[in-house]
Amino acid sequence: MINTESKFGLNYLEGSILKDGISKIYKDYHDKVEAIVKEWLASGIDQVYFVGCGGSRAIMEPVKLILDKYSSIPADAYTGWEFVNRAPERLNERAAVVLASHSGTTEEVLKSLDLAKERGAKTISFSLNDTPLQKGAENSLVYNTPAVNLAKLFMSYLVTTQLVIQSGNKAFGEELWQALSALPEKLQEIINVTEERGKALAKQYKDKKGYYLVATGMLAGLAYQFKVCTLLEMQWIHASHINAGEFRHGPFEIVEEGQPMIFLLGTDESRPVAERALNFANRYKADTIVFDLKELPEIHPYLAPFGVHIALQWFAWHLAQERDHPLPTRRYMWKVEY
After folding, report:
1. pLDDT by residue (tens digit) across 278-336?
2. Contact in structure between 53 and 106 (CB atoms under 8 Å)
3. Quick one: pLDDT at residue 6?
4. pTM for this structure?
5. Which structural domains are found in the chain, ordered by start?
């Protein structure tokens, strides 16, 4: 096991760090979120907006999909400046805006909050405690765990699942709510069985210069997150992500023998779309790395972003060590003016 005090920083997959953090969020907020959503619906909402940047933007993709499929309330997800500049016409007192920022100080997320409040929308934030975002939102959920993206993802699931229960497919919503209550233990199981493969992959791929990530459905947001936050930001490795549904519409021309390609496979309805892209890449001898939910301890298909995240994170953690490039390393972020 890696020393959490090393130059590589804190590994939130060690011990029970992740399980404890997610368990605390569920304990602290499952009743509160239920009450918030009940209040929203009683006052009348007909639109939900999710707003965040980077990893905080990525975690909003799967919950938008869930709302699209299982709730009658329309949902949209935006990066901060896009939300501010578009200023959607439907943003009014009958809208709810969900805003996420780990630091709670992200410029465009705070401007998004201001816009939402100007229009009379309901607001809820996910961030660290005692931040401008937390203080400015009508409601706020805070966390104290190094697993920041999984914390925000879990919070977004709490809100979304209550919206489904109270305004959509109640049976599915209650099924997902029950799965969320059991998730901390499930995550611990997945942590325990995925490290060795992550370590082996890191040794094998430590010298690769770039990757294409391919996913769709519940895992499309995770592919974006791993590209943006892990490979580009934390490892300075060239990367691009492709929705598997778009793979044949141009991107498959990049497939060639030996090209590293990471495929994320879930167990929801979109799986055949991702498998078709994977089969094509294998046919033309790309160097494919597959992270498949089916190969992990059983988890609800719509919780795929949590399970596959862990397998990817072990790969990232050990890749950082093999390359002697700690995940916290930055050359621009927080260091120079932008």
Report:
1. 999 999 999 999 999 999 999 999 999 999 999 999 999 999 999 999 999 999 998 99
2. yes
3. 67
4. 0.96
5. 17-168 (3.40.50.10490), 184-322 (3.40.50.10490)
Q: State the amino acid at position 11 in one-letter form.
A: N
